[in-house]
Amino acid sequence: MYSPAMSVSKALLGLLEVGPSHGYDLKRAHDDLFSPGRPLAYGQVYSTLARLLKNGLVTVEGHEAGDGPDRKRYAITDSGITDVDTWLATPESPQEYLQNTLYTKVVLALMSHRSAGQILDQQRQEHLRTMREFNRRKQSGDLADQLICDHALFHLEADLKWLDVTASRLDELTERVGK
What we know:
mainly alpha; Arc Repressor Mutant, subunit A; 2 domains; elongated; Tscrpt_reg_PadR_N
């Protein structure tokens, strides 16, 4: 749902803008707020922080002794704040979802005299199964998880509409592909 490395780095920067923090606390806050079902690996958090440090977007504010290695306390720099400002102000490009791959499968099925309708039906069943999972997760989730699930569900609903429209136009598409 939420996994691009760029987004992780921006999320960590945004969390640091609230106040300096240790990697462990950043990971916990990120997992709680943005990816409760898919926690970040500690290695990803620390490699991202190292990259942000190298790029001058964060600084190490101090070290604290712990049971293991010293714990670094990271803080966002002015450049990091500018980076977050720019990122927040830049609209996300709408993503092309399943349709590109699925459209390709439908066309190839038609060209090879396979059942495109069966492909669409199987995909519809998979979408409905996934929607049931998100609805279950939404029922037991907190507000953040509910909103994340709503986002996924709305996209799946749009995909289902596309599946229905495509199924209703298979004869027309068959004629076009056959030429």
